[in-house]
């Protein structure tokens, strides 16, 4: 009987071993809980950042859609106005050349220009002529008129053929020769005009000539 009791008692761990095992289990549990809490915190942070990104993206998309809708409305209004004004303008004879847009900017000793030429209706043949720039201003205190020569040129004909040139021999061109024109429906030209030394231009008259006949003319103040 005594031997059996001793064996039974010896089969159980002592108190210190039990406390050590409990502490180890608690430390392991605390470690796992800490990792779990850190992961939950990280996931919540990621979720918050994702929500913030989605909010910013949604706000940007709404702003872009609003801006696009506004631009579409403005474009529609502009197209309606254009149709209205085109109806007010009497139709020109077929093939007539017009100066549809002119932009001139004085830059020290040069004038940059952009010109759009268009022909009305179906002409059936190309237009060949000259675009001339005549400046009126003052030279050494006196009124003077100068035909400006090209120093740089860029041509876009019919929207598909582009030619770009640097004129290094502009001073050798005939006086008032201007820019040669050769197009069917429209021609966009841009470039730079040289201003003679000491000459102060006040306005420029842009002319479209064919031979000695002026087909279109417009004055632009600088």
UniProtKB/TrEMBL annotation:
It holds the Pfam family DUF6776. It comes from the Bacteria. Keywords: Coiled coil. Residues 61-88 form a coiled coil. InterPro entries: DUF6776. This is Uncharacterized protein. It comes from Sheuella amnicola.
